[in-house]
Amino acid sequence: MAKHDIAVCLGTLPKIKNHDRKIQILNTFAQGAKKAGAKVITTTEKIIPDAKVVVMIGWYGQKISGSHIQFRRQLIDHQLAHGRHVMPIDGSCFKWADNNDVWLRYSLDSVFWNEGNYANQHPTKHRWRNIRQQLNIEMVPWNTAGNHILLCLQRDNGWQGKGFDQRQWVTSTLQQLRQYTDRPIKLRCHPGSISNYVNEFTRFPNVFVSDCLKTDIMQDLKNAHAGVFYNSSSSVACALTGVPVFAAEQSAVTWSIANKNLNQIENPDRPERIEWLWSVADAHWSTDQSSNGDIYRQFAQFI
């Protein structure tokens, strides 16, 4: 029998520029869980607590650096080995319209879309309606008249990539694309991790590099024929703007609506998206829902 229902672990955070905001996110969840009747402890120590669920922001990658990342791994390994749970909080799939992180993703036992329990098994239109209205975003019809291909990179060595060799993946992807199309290809780095090798890809014909610090993803998607991703959540922006998605790894949030084979690049599938979108929206929770205890109440059935 665990001593606590919830342990919010502030020791999993790095001391970076948005440290205070992340503390606020975790404390807000703790307050909400208490309102919902949970036994909650909030701790700054790097000691594994006795709790049914430990709550943290983020996950850990293949390359572990920093004591906070090591502590995350220790917590995750311990909880799962003992039949308990981990709740990672992850960034919004609507980040391009949500700079203040009002909407965040919550899940149990994994941060990956195809592995974690997002408590969204029965999605409805209501959460998407709220997100759409609050962030002023829409899902537009599929585009059939675009020109260039947008190839999006992600953080080098980030946990999302699961240790993949991004340089090799981009090289291989460009080689494959050039077998099937001569369309312009625009490369976009992750704004928080600009790869120092990206300009080497301009050796391929008709390949250009976007200045991601001056151009947002919506600008890069304008007039795009298709978007190509490894498993980045930025593929959600691509799908909502009506640009067909190609994904390389099954943990991509867009996997169920994505094309998987680049030999379809000139004639991509454009499947129905509405139920997928409701499911993605239902994986997101607002600050108010967190502070009210709504998140804990929804997940309590799985704890």
Q: What does this entry show, briefly?
A:
The protein is α/β, with parallel strands linked by helices and 303 residues long.
Features:
single chain; 303 residues; alpha/beta; Rossmann fold; 2 domains; six-stranded mixed sheet; five-stranded parallel sheet; 11 strands
Protein model, in words:
With 303 residues, this protein is α/β, with parallel strands linked by helices. The chain folds into two domains: 150 residues, Rossmann fold; 125 residues, Glycogen Phosphorylase B (Rossmann fold, 3-Layer(aba) Sandwich), CATH 3.40.50. It has nine helices and eleven strands. The strands form two sheets. A six-stranded mixed sheet has the order 2-1-3-4-5-11. The chain has a five-stranded parallel sheet with strand order 8-7-6-9-10. Helix 2 links the parallel strand 3 and strand 4. Helix 3 packs across helix 7. The two termini are 13 Å apart.
